[in-house]
Amino acid sequence: MTNAYDKGRLNLPFVGISTFGKNPYQPDWSNIDADFAVLGAPFDFGTQFRAGARFGPRGIREASTLFSFGHAGAYDHEDDVTYLEGVRILDIGDADIVHTDTETSHANIETGVRAILAAGAVPVVLGGDHSINIPCIRAFAGRPLHIVQIDAHLDFVDVRHGVRHGHGNPMRRAAEQDHVKGITALGIRNVSSTAKDGYEAARKMGDDILSVRQVRKLGIEAT
After folding, report:
1. The domain 1-139 belongs to what CATH superfamily?
2. Which residues of 133-148 are buried (b: 16+ CB within 10 A; e: fewer)?
3. pLDDT per position in the chain (223 positions), as tens?
4. Which residues pair with 127 in a beta bridge?
5. Which residue spans of the chain are classified as CATH 3.40.800.10?
6. How far is residue 162's CA from residue 165's CA, in Å, rounded to a whole number?
């Protein structure tokens, strides 16, 4: 197999434009031709404590350049398989974020995810605080979806001080949508995740909840 060591530029991780995995950049969302398309959602207005996740997509992209160097895919010697070999990945840039405007910013994220789905690609969205799940899940309308949530928090708050689209609301907003057929929440913290009524509402609306303790007891295979 020919790889980046054999011909063309060496293209070290610190050289060039920092797209995800140094894959091609496609700014035209009407011309996505890929198996997977990466969208940045640099939004953190939904957080109530520690802001800064808006810089996540940029940081993830920079870190991901390391895995682009000198390989045609990623070889796993235990399974004797080369992952991502022949997989077409595009980076379509970031959704436009309008400062302090949650609804417009979320709508722009949803537009990006819808464009990826319309092109027949799998969306990979880089956040961002947990509220970005709301527009991402909305974008799947008409496509039946089961959500696997790996989290310490249940994120099933309905409304708090008038806020419906913050980082504590995404799974509640998801459960309200017809195309979401179920939610499996894994690793939920037993204390200080949410109030009792949050758990009751989640279970009533089809959320299957397993705490860290329960996942450990079952084991990975059983889970």
Report:
1. Ureohydrolase domain (3.40.800.10)
2. bbbbbbbbeeeeeebe
3. 445 556 677 788 898 899 999 999 999 999 999 999 999 999 999 998 899 999 999 999 999 998 886 667 788 999 999 888 889 999 999 999 999 999 999 999 999 999 999 999 999 999 999 999 999 999 999 999 999 999 999 999 999 999 999 999 999 999 999 999 999 999 999 888 888 999 999 999 999 999 999 999 999 999 9
4. 41
5. 1-139
6. 9
